[in-house]
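Encode chain A's predicted structure.
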Amino acid sequence: MVQKYQSPVRVYKHPFELVMAAYERRFPTCHLIPMFVASDVMEEETSEDGANQRIERRCALDVDAPRLLKRIAGVDYVYFIQKNTMNRKERTLHIESHNETFSNRVIIHETCCYSVHPENEEWTCFEQTASLDIKSFFGFESTVEKIAMKQYASSINKGKEIIEYYLKELQDEGITHVPRWTSSSCSLPPPRPTRQPHLFCFCVADKLDADYIKRYLGDLTPLQESCLIRLRKWLQETHKGKIPKDEHILRFLRARDFNIDKAREFLCQSLTWRKQHQVDYLLEKWSSPQVLQDYYTGGWHHHDRDGRPLYILRLGQMDTKGLVRALGEESLLRHVLSINEEGLRRCEENTKVFGRPISCWTCLVDLEGLNMRHLWRPGVKALLRIIEVVEANYPETLGRLLILRAPRVFPVLWTLVSPFIDENTRKKFLIYAGNDYQGPGGLVDYIDKEIIPDFLGGECMCEVPEGGLVPKSMYRTAEEVETEDIRLWTETIYQSASIFKGAPHELLIEIIDASSVITWDFDVCKGDVVFNIYHSKRAPQPPRKDASGAHGITSPVVNNVQLIDKSWTLGQDYSMVESPLTCKEGESVQGSHITRWPGFYILQWKFHNMAACSATNLPRVDDVLATLQVSSHKCKVMYYTEVLGSEDFRTLPSLGNSVNPTFSLQSAPVLSLTTPSSSSFLHSVFFL
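Encoded structure for chain A:
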């Protein structure tokens, strides 16, 4: 497997020329890098005007590896070829390096670039990318990979430190300025006025600054930074427009231990869910029913000692049965989602207020009054439903859970949830029985005394409702609750469809007026698909729905419609009006087509078949592996279409220029309960 690394943009607050003077002091060897034992200049050339210079070096590294491995490999040093290309006029240095030793077994490639800061020409930026591909190494492939990644991460950490060391050395020698390159035939243009750069991404390509990462996201290892940058870059390429905030992407990476492939799949499912159910607008559009405002015993209350938003839930005082009977599952789910959305907003706000990264919140749960009524079966069912959604879309948002005044019935609840909690997450939970929370090691260790709620013996008034029993007059019938649940769950402008090998999904649009505009917005939730648009003068036969048949589809929720009759001939009965567009799993696509004729237009999503190798007519290995990952040759899309009159059309892109649209923070709803991450599980338990 190829290991890749992508650095954030690291900024030196010194001019490019001074940084280059510091950089040159690293050669021929550097005492700050013990394994860098020697370097020899193999080739050097400079342009006549001195603006361009190219240097090729052969560098020897004493890799810190087990002696046995070195003896098996038969080498003492590992040699690399480094090629530096300096452009003093443009003020850039490009560095490329690759391994010479074992190049037929191991492929290491690294590129680096020093350049002028785009917003302050007195500062210098540094970026770095690298890849490692171990093809074979005497049966020690895994060991060599671990050694290489460990040493590379260590050298990355020391990189900026080394340049800063030599900059200070220059300063101690009285060298604080190095003149820019000039030529007798060209005068230097006047310097641009400098201004302080934004802490947010400053580059045209919207790259991340290392200082921004530390200020807003926290201390990450180099490899964690790389995972964040690579996943963010992938989102920029496939979901052009609005992408999730960096702290949101980081939560999903942490939830999957920075496995970028697993995190990408996890995040894309959540993004689709957010988009389908318009969760980004929940705080603006959702208004909690009055019964929730009166009887839901939870609310936000200042912050803890670490600056995390504090949510208080008086679970023992909550009538969970009454709330479920009066509202149904969906209203409760929406309310819990609004709590999580507000929590994300407060974390972002507190990050700015306290000047340090705050990405999660603290939940204080008062269990006084908890009894067997809270384990009512429909209430538990609603809880599991909420757990599914919260666990899938709000990972790594619970920082600490304080459980106070746990009664005798609490072990029953703990027995239900503890199997879902791993050892690391249990460290987030602190459980106090009786009044133990009032003593040493209690609440005051985590919450300032001034904001401890009055009902816990503090002096701060808490606006969390006291709860009580929901009047039975507010209960709804089962039919009313079901109708409301269906209304809330299906309240979306998007439709879902399944695509199978040999069974595309097709959508019919009738156009009366030529020059109308067909617009679309769809997300590829699973598998790869090909998107086509066809035109026919005659109406297709009534749609055929592949409800079971060859593909074994038995669920009534499956949407798969075919309109084009197999007897039709392309070019005679119908024609293709746009070139086919191949869309990969996870991509989001927007586009439009201006119609030239009235008639019937068919939008088609079909299974993407593997392309064969031109020489052998055999499928490529990568395509075979990708196909094996799509179970039963099934793909899924979520789509929305609209027809506009030409006068209403405002420069929407055509299919040929389809763009990937706005992906806010969005996942097809989770319908099967898997073992949830324990922080999200308990988080959901105590929100309900």
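The chain has 17 helices and 24 strands.
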